[in-house]
Amino acid sequence: MRRLLRKQEVWLALLTLTLGVGIGLVNPAFWSLANIFDLCKSSTVMGLFALGVLVVLVSGGIDVSFAAVGAFSMYVTSKVLLALGFQGSAALAFLLAGAIGLSLGLFNTLFIAFFRLPTLIVTLGSASLFRGLLLAFIGTTIVNNLPEGMVRFSKLTLWERTAAGGTPVGLSASFVLFVLAAVLVGFLLQRTMLGRGIYAMGGSPVAAERAGFRIRRQQLFIYGLVGLLSGVAGLVHACMMRNANPFDLAGLELNVIAAVVLGGASVTGGRGTVLGTVLGVLLIVTISNSLILLDIPSYWQKVVTGLVILVSTGITARTSGRRIHGVGLC
Amino acid sequence: MAQEYVAANHISKSFGGVAALRDVSLALRQGEIRCLVGVNGSGKSTLIKIIAGALRPDTGTITVGGRPFAHLEPIEAIRQGIQVIYQDFSLFPNLAVAENLALNTELERGVRLVNWRRVRRIATEAMEKLGRDLDLGKTVGELSVADKQLVAIAKALLQNAKVLIMDEPTTALTHKEVRTLFEIVQELKHRGLAILFVGHKLQEVLEISDTITVLRNGQKVAEGEVSQFTHGDLVRHMTGRPLPDRPSEEVSEKWHGHPAREALWHRHPADDSWAGREPPTRNSALGTPSPCHDEPASPTASEAITSVADAVLKVTDLTRRDAFEHISFEVRAGEILGVTGLLGSGRTELARSLFGLEPADSGRIEMGGQAIRMRTVQDAVRAGIAYVPEDRLTEGIFAEQSIERNIAISSLSSLAGPAGWIRPALLRRMVGQWIADLRIQAASARMPVANLSGGNQQKVVLGRWLATQAKILILNGPTVGIDVGAKSEVHEKIREQARKGMAVLLISDDLPELVEVCHRILVMHRGRIVKDVPADGCDEDRLAAELGRLE
What we know:
heterodimer, A: mainly alpha, ABC transporter involved in vitamin B12 uptake, BtuC, B: Rossmann fold, 20 strands, globular
């Protein structure tokens, strides 16, 4: 039980629930099916990015280029499919966006794994590079008429219900992508040797190398995966917005990293879980969503999000610090 | 006699033209504990790395189980059962004990998926093999150093270790933990493992080993059964000069009586490079020509404390909750007061509160008869207290900064001109003096401290605080992890400062050190002073017995 209470996930879940109950008391619309579905839909893009960031943080690195990768992938995909007059399913769009994201991620790995540059520097640089190339060579105008398949995907819902007012509500199909990605990343991290190798290199790169993990190969995988997930996340974003805006997704980096850290991942590597990350994303999305329900101006969202991050990570830092101190004394 | 399992034959290795090992041979036999000793830089770690396959020798071969290898690859070494436990243990602090234990086995198996049940089973078996108990679900980062070591040993055994090489395994352990470790090592020996123990705490080396090999300057200078060596022998072999505090006629007699070992004793010109260095006389108050050879056997025997009268520091009824209580003692000018006790006895906390780091809750601290408010480090420094902390890496040095800056940092105000600017010439002179005086071995004062050996780093920290011209010097484990040569130099420096009238508080685990250096020793237990022993007539066995009784 005590071990359970130490876990960040438990605190996060309690905090999110308390928040939900509180908001529900003020505005019962919070617990309506429509709002719940909306929350799920809103967490999808952030969640997909967050899963990639989780893997990077666990490995002891950091990636701040994922938002740029997402924007690049979705804008190029939209442009290309439009130019080709593509009418088919969104699956191809996702494949294309994923492939673009993957190659941009591998571009990062080139510098990280083979030139051994610090991950923060590499991804700061490449973020700027990707954005610049996108605007300079691909375009600066917003694409408002997305390819047919993407529009269809954005309207696709599962598990249709009729809400109290008689309007039909449904769970956005994109949410399935998030769930699928979460399950896969969870399996990867918990059940595969590759995943344990990622934890190992986050805990002690020297020991990981001595134990026989292939660090470069793992990095190739990690940054490739972040790229892939970011490409997909970018495309989901475009579908939801029903347009492709090359200026979009900027400034999302810190929120996503904050959500992952809030979920218990350590910026120094070696710690973090999918469950925690999902809860962290849910909490942040709930806060911004409910502030709208509570009629609070949107700039307060930033203030509250900031406070939640500071307080909750502050609490974990203090309790873990005290724990270490306690061990030292007795 | 036990069977030889691993042998290094005529190994030579140089790095960039500098010879690290010259024609060294070493054999490890099953059921035998061999100790490899030598000062820092003598080639110990190079030799270990070559046996582990991590480095390739320039010439020479490694024979494992009768099979010669010109190039032993690390993976081959592991397959042959050679396991090295490095000082950092190569564990993953963020993973559970069970996973740390099983990871290598799983990796070797080449599986892609983790079977957590199997991980647990492997880990349970590993701990059973060792006959010890640990919470397998606990994260390794939360374990004590001793438990981490246990995990590292269990991990090595899992991989069918036939040879276990341990690199300075006792450095961070308490007395009690060292005892446990020795029990385990003995057990492994009886199971037929060949064990190579790399160490520099000679008392421990003499206790644990069956055979000893001494390296100096990359050459084997002595080798033999443990019974052939005394403490003094080892020091002499390691440093090429006798131990300062124990002018050992009996040692040399014994030595000359062993013609067989004469053959193993290679003299070479480099031998005298250390002993022959001119000691600094400028700063020596008594004008002693050498810090080593003219030293009396025990400081109490001939060195009367300079002034009988005044207590420089008087502590009355000092208490800090959960750390120590009702601590009263005095230190006089010129006195070296030892403080010892098991881990958790409150000795470090006491030192920290005397230096204002963790202020006491109640009690009086007087200096020169005046009560002092000791709430911050600034209070302590102003009052003339200097503190050399326990863990120099995290608390003592600015690793990336130069030697010069590290030494000067606490006495900047005395180096400043009227406008508050630092006067570079003064700074360089002051730093240069301390580097010479402490015999810090460095190419330049601008070199980052991180590049120095442990002993020299410690001298830098010592130099910083001596430069403040403090009245009281508090040293916490000043010679932990540094080699014998540097150790005796540090001891000499401490004595010299005391002779000049400084009061010294020496906190240490190292009983021989306490007995040798101190005038009086306080034993702490559970936050209280339980014994006040004059060092005169006290030997380490008595002190050890005293400490043993507390457990």
